[in-house]
Design brief:
The chain has a domain of 41 residues. The chain contains 3 helices and no strands. The N and C termini lie far apart (43 Å).
């Protein structure tokens, strides 16, 4: 099986256990976030997920 297909399957499997969150951001903030993600070769989803996890860990510490 090609690597792209395997990666797509993994992403879909992870998403099936996730809940959707929709937020509204100012256009400039959204643009800056997209640039930030692209510069780090990651996704907005990964950035937000990491930040939420860190916030929860700090609160529980």
């Amino acid at each position: 099986m090609p690597t792209d297909t395997i990666n797509n399957l993994r992403e879909r499997e992870q998403r099936s256990h996730a809940a959707r969150l929709t937020i509204s951001l100012p256009r400039d903030t959204h643009a800056a976030l997209k640039i930030h993600a692209a510069q780090r070769q990651t996704t907005i989803r990964e950035i937000v997920t990491d930040l939420v996890h860190k916030e929860i860990e700090q609160e529980n510490a």
